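As a next step, the fold was encoded as tokens, giving this record:
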Amino acid sequence: MAFLAVIGRFFLTFLRHVGRLSIFTGAAVSHCFRPPLYPRLIFKQMVEIGYYSLPVVGLTGLFSGMVLALQSHTGFARFSAEGAIATVVVLSITRELGPVLAGLMVAGRIGAAMAAEIGTMKVTEQVDALTTLSTNPFKYLVTPRLIAGVMMLPLLVVVADILGVFGGYLIGTYKLGFNPGNYIARTWEFLEPLDVISGLCKAAVFGFLIVLMGCYHGYYSKGGAQGVGKATTNAVVSASILILVFNYIITELFFAQ
């Protein structure tokens, strides 16, 4: 019976967290479509999420494309299929590596920062002060971040895609000896609009998930500095896991035969 009690407590705890997250998500999304909005806060979060994340996302995309070109050449050389390297690089970057790696990088940077900021406000009762001042905490803290996250992640993924393909081009032409014109032609030959669109759709969903997890864990943090640290860790881990899960789901929706 003790074993069954442990299972029951785990199941009830899981349902409680799922229910609380569902209510939080519904409230956050509903406030995005109801006035008032705070354009200045939205713009501030767009700069924080988008502009300040450009270096890490750009470097990640660039070196991922370079490594992908090298590894593809190592494998394809065994089958005399080196001509497919450009196609593999562009499809891998636009479909998978660009959105996923950009999402994981932003989750580590932005998700942690949001959870720490909102968590600190929560444990120091600044969130309660907003309510006292007749300011909805969701409107002031969550809604601007959600809107900015959904808007800026696709733009970051565009940058990651461009730099990733450029990194593959650099390795292909300067190290592996491909003709630049032929490499560019092979890059465009098999690239379709759906490949880029699927990656941008993934980016928008990932942006929503990253901001949602950061705000959720920060909003419900408790226990002082230790609780804020735990919320920060949980925000990054949960956002990263959800990115990988929804990456498969969206890929299944777009490319399943």
